[in-house]
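Write out this protein's structure.
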Amino acid sequence: MVRDVMQSARFAALSLIDPDTGAPMVSRIALVEGPDRIPLSLISDLSQHSAALQKTPVCSLLIGEPGAKGDPLTYPRLSLQAEAGFVRHGDVAHARLAQAFLAKQPKAKLYIGFADFALVRFTPLGAHLNGGFGKAYVLDASDLTDTP
């Protein structure tokens, strides 16, 4: 179920700490499962959430969208606890990760090369999987990053 949620993800709600107020903040980001199964996003340094993650990289992501019909709470979702790591232009892994990101988010080709954009890897620390009624699981990092 985790694999299905991650592989179908195109967006996620990102929760972090606002460095100016110390209060929680939520933003929607584009998201893909990276080639190493680590969630991956593309974020501009001009965004408020980029500044927040650079100051405090521990965050959480809510991944999984409700379907078009029925009760939205019956659809699987993953609440992932993670640490954000920035991969910038010129970093050894950037080209490989950019290719993986663009394979699932092709419209990002318009701005992925801009100097203020970095790829952000969300290394799992743990998670809660809610698959609907009676399907709730606490997961550790190894449950989320093991190879198939």
